[in-house]
């Protein structure tokens, strides 16, 4: 089976790698595409560095636009030239949509599957119908999304669970005394958020030890940025999972990592400094919930400190409250238990399906 995979960021790379390993149990795979270390370890030689696509916010996109357009052309041309059996696009919604459009135009019958649904339930619901011609199917990692796409007349959508569910095995970890800092997986995110996280760390006297986990290609940069702080820096998946077993509280930049923290039963604060355009939209639509644990439960169990300016004082106050009060941490853990149950089974109208079987159905 010739499979072309495009993963534009660390979380997507890890997600796709899990699916690839599952497929290998059923098929011999010829892999190509764009990937990071997890997919490369599974045998995929990346067309170019995945980090070229790791942008967040309009400013980051603007600054890298010529490179992004070139990488888009490279990706579409490679797919058209190779004519794989299936194209798997993983998250990175804007880039994935443009790749799908280019491939669909050149190869109308090519099976194209999107892994991780765009958040049409949060903003621009009209996108659901717009992308329907592009994707044969969307593999969703959130259990309510199949109904959303059906109601909006979007592409076929199947809930397939989340690759981070194994982190639930860490929920009973003891000896959790550390502070865990998760500043994001993109350079732009780190530039906007790191200073506030470091300020909070320096003022949280409750923790003798602090861990900061990043992606490998940003590690040296972060080591320079935190050299004056007593923080242990590590990178990679195994380091992240090890840090989870010792974390009493985490300060996390918004993203998939908040759901991973919920699986692992780590109470946390969600923090995010958005660029001005994204921040303006956030205000325009009424400051909706942005953290995946909160979205899944439709209530705020994890404090969200979000804005276009660094709300450092608010972050520090929320972090102190969580560090000082066992009842606050227990309330989050009770919510995380609800999430783990929901993610295991799926919604009644859209029971969980096997992502490997969904992919193989197109071959």
TrEMBL record:
Recorded family membership: Belongs to the LpxB family.
Function comment: Condensation of UDP-2,3-diacylglucosamine and 2,3-diacylglucosamine-1-phosphate to form lipid A disaccharide, a precursor of lipid A, a phosphorylated glycolipid that anchors the lipopolysaccharide to the outer membrane of the cell.
Keywords from the UniProt entry: Glycosyltransferase, Lipid A biosynthesis, Lipid biosynthesis, Lipid metabolism, Transferase
GO BP annotations, alphabetical order: lipid A biosynthetic process
EC number(s) recorded for this UniProt protein: 2.4.1.182
Protein name according to UniProt: Lipid-A-disaccharide synthase
GO CC annotations on file: membrane
Catalytic activity: a lipid X + a UDP-2-N,3-O-bis[(3R)-3-hydroxyacyl]-alpha-D-glucosamine = a lipid A disaccharide + UDP + H(+)
Gene Ontology MF terms: lipid-A-disaccharide synthase activity; phospholipid binding
Enzyme class: transferase
PANTHER family linked to this entry: LIPID-A-DISACCHARIDE SYNTHASE (PTHR30372), LIPID-A-DISACCHARIDE SYNTHASE, MITOCHONDRIAL-RELATED (PTHR30372:SF4)
Top-level taxon in the UniProt lineage: Bacteria
Organism: Maritalea mobilis
């Amino acid at each position: 089976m010739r499979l072309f995979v495009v993963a534009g960021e660390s979380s997507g790379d890890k997600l796709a790698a899990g699916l690839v390993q599952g497929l290998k149990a059923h098929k011999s795979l010829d892999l190509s595409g764009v990937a990071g270390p997890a997919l490369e370890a599974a045998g995929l030689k990346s067309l170019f560095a995945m980090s070229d696509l790791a942008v967040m916010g309009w400013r980051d996109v603007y600054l890298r636009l010529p490179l992004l357009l070139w990488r888009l052309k490279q990706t579409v041309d490679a797919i058209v030239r190779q004519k794989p059996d299936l194209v798997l696009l993983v998250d990175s919604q804007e880039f994935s949509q443009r790749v799908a459009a280019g491939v669909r135009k050149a190869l109308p019958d090519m099976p194209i599957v999107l892994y991780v649904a765009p958040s049409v339930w949060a903003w621009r619901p009209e996108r659901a119908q717009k992308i329907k011609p592009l994707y044969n199917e969307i593999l969703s990692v959130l259990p309510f999304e199949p109904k959303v796409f059906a109601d909006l007349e979007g592409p076929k959508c199947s809930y397939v669970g989340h690759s981070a569910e194994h982190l639930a095995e860490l929920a009973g970890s003891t000896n959790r005394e550390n502070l865990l800092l998760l500043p994001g997986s993109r350079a732009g995110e780190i530039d906007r958020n790191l200073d506030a996280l470091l300020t909070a760390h320096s003022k949280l006297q409750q923790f003798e030890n602090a861990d900061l986990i990043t992606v490998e290609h940003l590690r040296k940069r972060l080591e320079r940025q935190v050299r004056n702080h007593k923080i242990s820096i590590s990178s990679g998946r195994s380091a992240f999972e090890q840090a989870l077993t010792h974390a009493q509280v985490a300060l996390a930049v918004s993203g998939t990592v908040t759901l991973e923290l919920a699986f692992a039963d780590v109470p946390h604060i969600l923090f995010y400094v958005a660029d001005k355009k994204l921040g303006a939209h956030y205000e325009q639509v009424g400051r909706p919930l942005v953290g995946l644990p909160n979205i899944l439960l439709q209530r705020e169990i994890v404090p969200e400190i979000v804005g276009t300016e660094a709300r450092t004082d608010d972050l520090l106050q929320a972090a102190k409250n969580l560090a000082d009060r066992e009842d606050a941490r227990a309330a989050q853990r009770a919510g995380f238990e609800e999430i783990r149950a929901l993610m295991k089974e799926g919604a009644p109208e859209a029971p969980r399906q096997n992502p490997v079987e969904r992919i193989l159905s197109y071959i």
